[in-house]
From TrEMBL:
<dbReference type="GO" id="GO:0042026">
    <property type="term" value="P:protein refolding"/>
</dbReference>
<dbReference type="GO" id="GO:0044183">
    <property type="term" value="F:protein folding chaperone"/>
</dbReference>
<keyword id="KW-1015">Disulfide bond</keyword>
<dbReference type="Pfam" id="PF01430">
    <property type="entry name" value="HSP33"/>
</dbReference>
<dbReference type="InterPro" id="IPR000397">
    <property type="entry name" value="Heat_shock_Hsp33"/>
</dbReference>
<keyword id="KW-0676">Redox-active center</keyword>
<feature type="region of interest" description="Disordered">
    <location>
        <begin position="206"/>
        <end position="229"/>
    </location>
</feature>
<dbReference type="GO" id="GO:0005737">
    <property type="term" value="C:cytoplasm"/>
</dbReference>
<dbReference type="InterPro" id="IPR016154">
    <property type="entry name" value="Heat_shock_Hsp33_C"/>
</dbReference>
<dbReference type="InterPro" id="IPR016153">
    <property type="entry name" value="Heat_shock_Hsp33_N"/>
</dbReference>
<protein>
    <submittedName>
        <fullName>Hsp33 family molecular chaperone</fullName>
    </submittedName>
</protein>
<keyword id="KW-0143">Chaperone</keyword>
<keyword id="KW-0963">Cytoplasm</keyword>
<dbReference type="InterPro" id="IPR023212">
    <property type="entry name" value="Hsp33_helix_hairpin_bin_dom_sf"/>
</dbReference>
<keyword id="KW-0862">Zinc</keyword>
<dbReference type="GO" id="GO:0051082">
    <property type="term" value="F:unfolded protein binding"/>
</dbReference>
Length: 330
């Protein structure tokens, strides 16, 4: 069943932690936009990440949510970075229809050096490496993985390369994260994280209008009808470029207000928002199943004070097991 569309103002604003699909008919553009608040804050505060790490992971979470909510099937979408910078690993995944989890791994000593040298831009923290996008439809299908290099450019630009390589769809991505300092209802100082993002894609009815120029080294005709020559996409991309980072994270702006500001002259329409939640997929039974595959020697080596404790890297939940629980039934 098709999603119901509405002009801006016909229903309540989506608010935080809701992805808003949109369409700009006058420009042949579709996309999604989101502002993340309490959901993101819960993920980041659980681990007490240093601010540069939290900001970087927040952008990855936004990117994962924007792309994951486009899945038309049950499955999981994962974004993972692996690099040689102070933040050597970032992982965020979206499990349909609405669950998000994420974590970061970093070297504290290298991070301290980067902070002292004022080298805390995302590309500086990640270093050289790869960014992988993985789509997993379950045990009856082979996962699809697209890999693009971490080459010193921003996550926004890297995401654009992914779409160019994998889907051949002209795409522009915007991401931002921010710390919010205010006071709670009792007047006490409060610190929160927010983030926002937008993905816009050029999807005209005539497929030849959206043809992208071939990647360097390809065999195609690189001068034939590149998407950059299409006036509609040029206009849409230029409008998206005008977004300030503050607009993506400001709770007073709101997703629908931003979309209206960008595209109202072209007839922007928004669709029913989709809520996303901070929910981990770990469980005691799953971890117990993994531990039962350990050898007796491995179980012995994993014990501490007569028990085995396993902490989930995503949600920080610790599961404790008695060695006898893991012995095979006689």
């Amino acid at each position: 069943m098709a999603e119901a569309a509405a002009a801006l103002g016909q229903f309540d604003f989506a608010g935080d932690d809701h992805v808003v699909p949109f369409q700009v008919e006058g420009l042949d553009v579709r996309g999604r936009a989101v502002q993340l608040g309490p959901m993101l804050d819960a993920i980041l505060e659980r681990h007490h990440y240093p601010a540069p790490v939290a900001r970087l992971l927040a952008e990855v979470v936004v990117l994962t949510v924007l792309l994951g909510t486009s899945l038309k099937f049950d499955g999981k979408f994962t974004v993972q970075t692996k690099g040689d910078g102070p933040v050597d690993l970032l992982v965020a995944d979206f499990s349909t229809p609405e669950n998000v989890r994420a974590y970061a791994r970093f070297d504290q000593a290298l991070l301290n050096k980067a902070i002292e040298a004022s080298e805390t831009e995302p590309e500086q923290l990640l270093g050289k490496g790869v960014l992988a996008f993985t789509i997993d439809q379950g045990k009856f299908s082979q996962p699809y993985q697209g890999i693009v290099p971490l080459d010193g450019t921003t996550l926004e630009e890297i995401a654009g390369v992914y779409f160019r390589q994998s889907e051949q769809i002209p795409t522009r991505v915007r991401l931002a994260a921010a710390e919010l300092f205010d006071r709670d209802d009792a007047g006490k100082p409060r610190h929160r994280w927010r983030a926002g993002g937008l993905v816009a894609q050029f999807l005209p009815e005539a497929p030849e209008r959206m043809r992208q120029p071939d990647l360097h080294g390809g065999d195609g005709d690189t001068g034939s009808r590149p998407h950059g020559d299409d006036d509609a996409w040029v206009e849409a991309r230029s409008l998206v470029e005008t977004i300030d980072a503050d607009e993506l994270t400001d709770p007073l702006v709101g997703t629908e207000r931003l979309l209206f500001r960008l595209f109202h002259e072209r007839g922007v329409r928004v669709y029913e928002p989709r809520a996303v939640f901070d929910r981990c997929s770990c469980s005691r039974d799953k971890i117990k199943g993994v531990l039962k595959g350990f050898s007796a020697e491995e179980i012995e080596a994993s014990q501490e004070n007569g028990e085995i404790a396993v902490t989930c890297e995503f949600c920080s939940t610790t599961y404790r097991f008695e060695p006898a629980e893991l012995q095979p039934a006689e």
